[in-house]
Input
Amino acid sequence: MRIHIATDHAGLEFSTQLQHHLAQQGHDIVDHGPLEYDPVDDYPAFCIRAAQAVVRDQQAGVETLGIVFGGSGNGEQIAANKVRGIRAALVWSIATAELAREHNDANVISIGARQHTVEEAIGFIDRFIETPFSGEERHVRRIAQLAAYEDDGSLLPDPRATASAPVGGESADDLDPEAG
Output
């Protein structure tokens, strides 16, 4: 499997160790940076490029996933999720790694390098990679709703819009910032 990896200064040493582990398992590793330690580097460009590469590879039929790191993993997850077609999950346990794939068909995980040991992160990553998407209808349906919103902004109807009595004295239109 091809694994795209990106980080910032906080995760650079972490990333190097994890790349070594993944290469030993036979994965094709693509490092999107940084190449050297810079205490004031910015993660968005690294993480967005890794996410873009995951989407390109998946569209080309290449089996691929992405892993992004930072101090907490939060910003890196946000950056990856800005790329159309990415479902990046912040992972902090074996269970969240497994559920990210099984229920959400996540194609990128984000891990906080300052929050976990390398051994813990290896466990999360290994579980993420080995766990298949369940394909259950409810999960497929929800992922399709996310994709529809990403594509054209469509959402399922708001059930409050058909309620006979306004909530808190407000009409459904009052609750919708897009309404007129």
User: Anything to note?
Assistant: Residues 43-59 form the longest helix (17 residues). Helices lie at 12-24, 43-59, 74-81, 94-102, 118-130, 137-152, 172-175. The chain has a mean pLDDT of 90.
